[in-house]
Amino acid sequence: MERVFIVEDHPIYREGLAGYVNEASGIQVCGVADNVPEALEGIEKTRPHLAVIDLQLKGSSGFDLIQDIRYRWPDLRILVLSMYDEIRYADRVLRMGARGYVMKDKGPQTVLKAIQAVLRGDIYASERVKDQLLMGKVDKSPTDVLTDRELQVFQMLGEGDSVAEVAEKLNRSPKTIQNHIDHIRKRMNIRTRQELYQKSKEWVLDRNDASS
Questions:
Q1: What radius of gyration, in Å, describes the C-alpha atoms of the chain?
Q2: What is the pLDDT of residue 133?
Q3: What is the residue extent of each domain of the chain?
Q4: Which residues touch 96 (CB under 8 Å, ≥6 apart)?
Q5: Which of 34, 69, 111, 151 could be stapled to 9 by a disulfide with Cβ–Cβ 3.0 to 4.6 Å?
Q6: In this predicted model, what pLDDT tens digit does every residue of 174-206 receive, in sequence order?
Q7: pLDDT score, position 136
Q8: 8 A C-beta contact, residue 75 and residue 102
Q9: Domain 2-134 in CATH 3.40.50.2300
C-alpha cells in the first residue's frame, strides 16, 4: 500500500482530496496537515512514500517545506499542488527536487493521475509545461532573478495583499517583508515601491491570462 501525506491549508479541499485518493486502489492517505511544523511531525511519524504539498500554507510556505523535506528525507517524493501559474513555478519546484507540479483547478482526477505517476517514479507535468519549460522553450521573465521567497512576496503583492497581510500569511515580520520588497526592487531594477506594486499586479494579470 502506497502512503500519501497531504499538506493543504484549505480544509474542505484537503478532506475532499484525501477522501478521493483513499478510494483509489493501492493508495492510502496516511496523514494531513495545514502548516509546516505539523507536516514535518506527521511525516516523521507516518513515513509516507509521497508528500503532496500546496505552495500556500497556513503561516508559512510550501517552498520552506520542500527544502526541509529534501534535507531530512531526500528519498521522499514530492508533488506540488497549487493555484500558482505552472509555467513560472513548476521549473522552480522541480529544481528544488519535487517530482511533479499540478494545478488545483484541474480537478481531483488529474491530481490523482499526478500522484500515481510520481509514485511510479515518473515526473508529472502538464503538456504545456513539458513543451514550454522542460524542453527549454519558456520565455524569460523579469521575475527569474528573484529568489523563491521574493517571487512569493511579489506574487502576493500582485494579488492585492498588503505588507501586513503578506507578513501574517508567511509568518514573518512586516520589516522582513519590507526588506524583501527592497531586494526585489534592486534585482528587478525598479525605482519605487509604487512602481513595484504596479508591476506585480500587471505580472499576476499576465500570468492569469496566459493560463486561461
A1: 17
A2: 59
A3: 2-134, 142-211
A4: 63, 66, 67, 70, 148
A5: 34
A6: 999 999 999 999 999 998 989 999 989 988 877
A7: 58
A8: no
A9: yes
* pLDDT under 70: residue ranges of the chain: 131-140, 207-212
The contacts of residue 189 (CB under 8 Å, 6+ apart) are none
Report the SS3 class of residue 38: helix
Distances (CA, A) of 17 to 65, 67, 89: 20, 24, 22
Instruction: Quote the cell numbers at residue 74.
Output: 531526500
Query: CA geometry: angle at 79 spanning 75 and 82, to 5°?
Result: 150
Helices 62-72, 148-158: axis angle to 10 degrees equals 160
Residue 196 has which C-alpha cell? 513595484
* pLDDT at residue number 127: 77
d(CA 193, CA 20): 44
Q: Concatenate the DSSP letters of all residues of 51-97 into one string.
A: EEEESEETTEEHHHHHHHHHHH-TTSEEEEEESS-HHHHHHHHHHHT
Report how far residue 212's alpha carbon sits from residue 196's, in angstroms, rounded to the nearest whole number.
Answer: 24
Residues facing 61 on adjacent strands: 56
β 100-103/77-82 pair status: parallel
pTM over 0.70: yes
How many Cβ atoms from other residues are within 10 Å of residue 54's Cβ? 23
Among 123, 125, 122, 115, smallest CA distance to 50 is for 115
Just give the CATH number of 142-211. Answer: 1.10.10.10
Q: Which residue has the cell 488529474?
A: 110
The DSSP 8-state label assigned to residue 49 in this structure reads S
